[in-house]
Amino acid sequence: MTNAAQNPSVAQTVRRTLSSWSKRASNLFTVSRGGTYYEAAAENPRIEQPGDVGPNARNAEFAVLRAQSRWMFANDPYYRQACNQVGRNVVHHGIKPIVRNKVLRKLWKQWCREADARGQLTFEGLQFQAAVAMARDGEVLARLRPRLPSDMKSKVPFQIQLLEADYLPLEKTLRGERGTLIINGVERNQIDRTVAYWLFDHHPRDLFLTGSALPNRVPASEVLHIYLPDRIGDTRGYPWGASALKVTQRARTYDEVQLERMIVSSSRGGYYKKPRLAGDEETMFEGGESEFQALEPNEWIEIPEGWDIEQAQPIPGDANYSDVKREYLSALAVAFGFYVEMVNMNHDKMTSDRQYRAVQLEMIRHIESIQHHVMVARLCQPTWERFVSSVYLAGLFAPEAEKTVEDYYDVEWMTPKRGHIHPLQEIQAVVEAIKNGIMSRKRAVAQLGEDVEDIDAEIALETARAMFLKLGYPVYGLDKVAPDVSGAGEPPGEADGSKPSSPFDNLLKASEDLDGDDLEFEADDLDHIDEMEPA
How many CB atoms lie within 10 A of CB 8? Predict the structure, then answer.
């Protein structure tokens, strides 16, 4: 071995030392002792290594999450607002089907008014309540309750009973009969299909029934489980705001500290010092020396000579308070899929309508996914299929020729319309899209939450009424040519003696599929327009 190797130079020693430090630093922040490739997988003391679980391994914790979420819903205005915004934006006044058959349409409207088994809400109201409960509790159940025809004005023999998630016991997990598996109250068969739910007859935490109920097996065909699966294979749902519960609870403490600081600051009036040589000077108090008393607003008082008065200065608040509050409210809003202005209802930071449109587009994608993947798929469509089957079995409806009952299961659902940010620009853009064949009128009207056939029928009936009353509104194209209702110049009849069709006949024929209760005016308001024979 050479002397150079035995006695390295100072430069070599420095290089070796730096190289060693560099490796240690690299191992500390990137590579673990096991030599991992992914930084996040390194056994790093700076990184907390969480334990991994299956999709249903920690479902027992959902009870604690629900309790915290409900408490926040009852006590925190921002958390309550976030939950309610799910109902307002996903459901609003209701997700409604486009029903072509007259008989089904009439029966459906009658049934919607008495759909609630408790007699409190319409079917649209049940949708709203289910959406809010799903956001707050993570899930909600809808049980399809059979009824006698005599129990219902519409004669449709079933109603919907909404149940909170507590009706489905989380502790009910075991191997069922015939190879089924019950996971947190949900029974699945060998092909992983839900076949039954184990439900309490009463809410297990109600005052008068605590601990008295035992779960019973209810076929899956009688229960609608409404929730958004978070992981593949999820059996139960948990509150949407779970990821923001901790930060929201701590933020409440932060708000209370700021508020108390302002209260203490405003309660301090000032300070005073007595004269150093206290003799027989006069004081401003009756009965000798005493402490200063609180003053009334706009009250003036004379201070004795030699007294030193100093007004208390307010305690300065946190200059970053509003920004900090906005950030933690943003975390809460994002947990529900919204932007912060939807939670705090404060649009001071929105500097332009373009910025507002950008966040609206992102939020609308989230809302539409909930509407179609959850509310329509898990509540509305199964309810409609049950409705069609029920009215058929009750003898209230018969399929048309060459059609089966299942043919009427296929129905389109209209989601509630969204308001316009800039109505003139947005409507004009839709008009241009229709003119150039980019969009159909059907899609344009559907965006407004309406049925294009109902719109056309209403316009036809209103046009006939305008012609009869000689209303020259430009919207009906009657401002240039007004109809002559005098009867002069009536064209002769046909060869077979029948009367020729008039514009009124065509208009009324186009509107005959529209029910009277869909219009803003009833048929009697037309003053026997169908009897008129205009030229």
Answer: 12
In the numeric block, which tokens belong to residue 79? 């958390």
Maximum distance among all Cα pairs of the chain, rounded to whole angstroms: 131
**How crowded is residue 487: how many other Cβ atoms within 10 Å of its Cβ?**
10
Where does residue 330 rank: exposed (0-12), middle (13-18), buried (19+ CB within 10 A)? middle
For tokens 């096991």, name the residue.
34
Single-letter code of the amino acid located at 250: R
| pTM attached to this predicted model | 0.74
Say if strands 158-164 and 308-311 run parallel, antiparallel, or are unpaired: unpaired
CB neighbours of residue 279 within 10 Å: 5
The sign one gets for the Cα dihedral 252, 254, 255, 256 is positive
Distance, CA of 140 to CA of 533 (rounded, Å) = 58
Instruction: List the structure tokens of 509.
Output: 């024929």
Tokens (6 digits) for 169:
């016991």
For 183, 282, 283, 301, the CA distances from 287, given in Å and listed in that order, are 80, 11, 9, 17
Question: Degrees (nearest 5) of the Cα angle 407, 409, 412?
Answer: 110
Q: Which H or E element spans position 97?
A: strand 96-98
Determine which helix (DSSP H) or strand (DSSP E) holds 444, and give its type and residue range.
helix 441-447
Angle (nearest 5°) at CA 125 between 105 and 384: 35
Report which of 70, 69, 87, 93 is spatially closest to residue 342, judged by C-alpha positions: 87
Task: State pLDDT tens for residues 266-276.
Answer: 666 666 666 66
CA 278 to chain centre: 71
User: How far is Cα of residue 171 from the mean position of the Cα atoms in its chain?
Assistant: 29
Instruction: For residue 160, list its beta bridge partners.
Output: 116, 144
Q: Return the number of other C-beta atoms located less than 10 Å from residue 33's C-beta.
A: 9
Residue 488 is predicted with a pLDDT of: 43
pLDDT digits (tens, 9 = 90+) for 95-105: 999 998 999 99
Task: Tell me what pLDDT residue 297 has.
Answer: 62
- pLDDT averaged over every residue in the chain: 80
219 phi/psi in degrees, rounded to 5? -55, 145
Contact between 333 and 342 (Cβ < 8 Å): yes
Please answer whether residues 186 and 194 qualify as being in contact, where contact means their C-beta atoms are separated by less than 8 angstroms: yes
Report the pLDDT value the prediction gives residue 410, as an integer from 0 to 100. 94
**Which helix or strand (DSSP H or E) is residue 370 part of?**
helix 353-370
C-alpha to C-alpha distance for 535 and 533, rounded to whole angstroms: 7
Tell me the residue length of the chain.
535
The answer to whether the CB of 478 falls within 8 A of the CB of 467 is yes
Tell the residue number behind the tokens 């100093």, with chain if given: 310
**Token pair listed for 422:** 């800039």
Beta-carbon contacts of residue 447 (< 8 Å; ≥ 6 apart): 417, 418, 430
Structural contact between residues 127 and 452, judged by C-beta atoms closer than 8 angstroms: no
Whether 453 contacts 517, CB under 8 Å: no
Please report where in the chains the tokens 């629900």 appear, as a residue.
Answer: 66
Q: Is 532 exposed, middle or buried (0-12, 13-18, 19+ CB in 10 A)?
A: middle
Neighbours of 340 (CB within 10 A): 22
